[in-house]
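Handout, section 3.2

Students often ask what a structure token actually looks like in practice. Rather than define it abstractly, here is a full record for Inositol 2-dehydrogenase. The first block is the sequence as you would receive it.
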Amino acid sequence: MTLHQQTTRRQFLQGTAAATAGLLVPFASRSFAFQSPNERPVFATIGLRNQGWGITNKSFKFADFAAFADVDANVLGENLEKAAQRQGKKPDGYKDYRKILDRDDIDAVMIATPDHWHTKIAVEAMLAGKDVYCEKPLTLTIDEGKLIEETVDKTGRVFQVGTMQRTESGQRFLQAVALIKNGRIGKVKKVTCGINGMQASPVIPEVKTPEGLDYDFWLGPAPKVAYRALPEMREGYGGGVPLYSNCHYSFRNWHEYSGGKLTDWGAHHVDIACWAIGASDTGPSRVTPLDYTLPVEYKEGYPVVDDQYNAATQFNIQVDMPNDIEMIITSEGDNGILFEGTEGRFFVNRGKITGKPVEDLESNPLPGGAIEEVYGGPVSENHTANFIDAMNSRKQPISDVWSHNRMLEICHLSNIAMRLGRAVNWDPAKREIVGDSQANTFLSREYRKGFEIDM
């Protein structure tokens, strides 16, 4: 630990919180207190649109932000002003994130860029001596996850992944995991993760890049292509950007930058499912696409056109998990997770947890400390609080790199199986696809020249 990091360590106060809405058992909660403002850690955020500002805004309570970076000058300027209002001092602003990594006064970075940038920035940040909070999904490929794990081991940095359902959402998901681990549905037989589908796009034409956006830098490690957009604007979450484009909010719908719903919502619900059934340190044996719709034609696993969204729009995927548990990942039905066992079933999502095992808690509550046992101690106030707790203890946080990568491998394999139109067999020990050399080529990607990871 550096001298600066030693001087920014916090002291924690533990308390007991009342049950939150939707939680049927009380649990202990951890909150923070500072001895002086000088003990607050110094953060920087890289990637500020939408979720980038969201995680930053939640963190002003715990940290001081010294710098922001974004390749869109409009987004950068707007958020610098908002930060100045929140903390009384404007952070320094950069287009190039590497200027942040060069600074010795920054303890940790929060990364909320599009997915195709995550690994490069995260690895370089750790090598520069920074702790890292990175939004989910952590990687674009399975081999990128292995590289991040190696770098965490090599550098000893603390790394939090932004799968906030492990901490937030009224603790319903912690309760769900506790129900499973306390045998309230008997032996788990099936888990269904409903993650919604998405709409296909019309043909999206090449247009002039918006003023203030460095699109070449936005593309970064991804292949160089023209900027595409339609004039219709998105309302609500993601507002201020085109409804259809190959940039900003819509990057999730392109395999070049993300993995569609499989790595968007899948990174949340598959994570909780794996945690509950005890599969956070292993993986599936087989991933089978039962039925699915790709919005464009594919050849040898790659889309043949580049002017429309290419991630799957509808899907039902069967995943063979350890202990003869069947996992279904589907775009159908309610968004959330259905657990089915030999003695009952229940459903959980961000708004509710329902089913007879939940109703039975009124007369047969979970044992005291069940939630804390799942969490590994008193439950943190929010995801940033858990990250800073880990920074102080120098232990990995609740959303660690290893469990995240294990469950994300399921999501990546699902996309590979759909792109190739066949089931894939997986060796969770070797972490490679069995007997399919073509499928194994999708475990990694080539970085565009000039944007390779600086090791």
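Discussion prompt for tutorial groups: The domain at 3-169+376-401 is CATH 3.40.50.720 (Rossmann fold). How would you have guessed this from the sequence alone?
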